[in-house]
Amino acid sequence: MSYIDSYDHEYIGSLGYLPIYRSLQVIEGNKWGDYDFSATPNNLILGGGSGEHPGLVVHKLGSLAAKFLYDQISDEEEESISKEDMDYVIDQCYADDILEFCGWSIRQYASLKEMAESITFTTPLGEDEEVEEWLCKSLGELIYFSLFELNPEHNKLKGIFGRFEIQASMQNIACVPPGYPRCGGRRVENGELKWGLHRWPAKP
User: Fold this and answer.
1) To 5 degrees, how large is the angle CA 135–CA 1–CA 60?
2) How many other C-beta atoms are found inside a 10 Å radius of the C-beta of residue 41?
């Protein structure tokens, strides 16, 4: 059993070999970057921690969505955005403390880079691209299109970028298809532990 399995959480999908979770309760772990991580329902978590894979806690979901959107527009489109709005977008894009690698070793980080370069992804890591940037854009696309209710900046970002044609240019997140057995995610209901809690339940 992994660290995340000690808490109520939902399974969202996966990015390569890393499952994507969202805690449904506050996890009070140790200090920033420790193996036993802290998280809230406002975060995404890649990897389940102890017993699975060291966790990567994703903070400031609005910043990831902003990075994805900003990467989509042309120079001409950027020039049409007001200075006030562009200042806001840049502040979002360059926010600090977005990705928290919790107890990762150098070997595991190197493995992440190798995974990101795989041609099995629709959009693998570019030759001159940093792994963190690829992670942010891959997750930012997911947040913008499918997890917008978790993004407190969604309405403002949509107001700025909504007039442009925004494509799903990354498409690196995989989700369990309907009919497949459920794995990951749990919730305690009426004192009973229930497993297989997915973000998007399979339709009957």
Assistant:
1) 30
2) 14
Q: How far apart are CA 156 and CA 148, in angstroms?
A: 11
pLDDT in tens, 40-87: 999 999 998 887 899 999 999 999 999 999 999 999 999 999 999 999
Report which residue type is found at 93. Answer: C
**Residues near 100 by beta carbon (within 8 Å), at least 6 away in sequence:** 32, 33, 37, 56, 57, 58, 59
Q: What is the pLDDT of residue 10?
A: 95
In the structure encoding, which two tokens stand for residue 147, read together? Answer: 């997890």
* pLDDT at residue 203, rounded to an integer: 60
* β-pair partners for 187: 194
Q: Which two tokens stand for residue 129?
A: 């691209």
Listed residue (91, 21, 102) closest to 63, CA to CA: 91
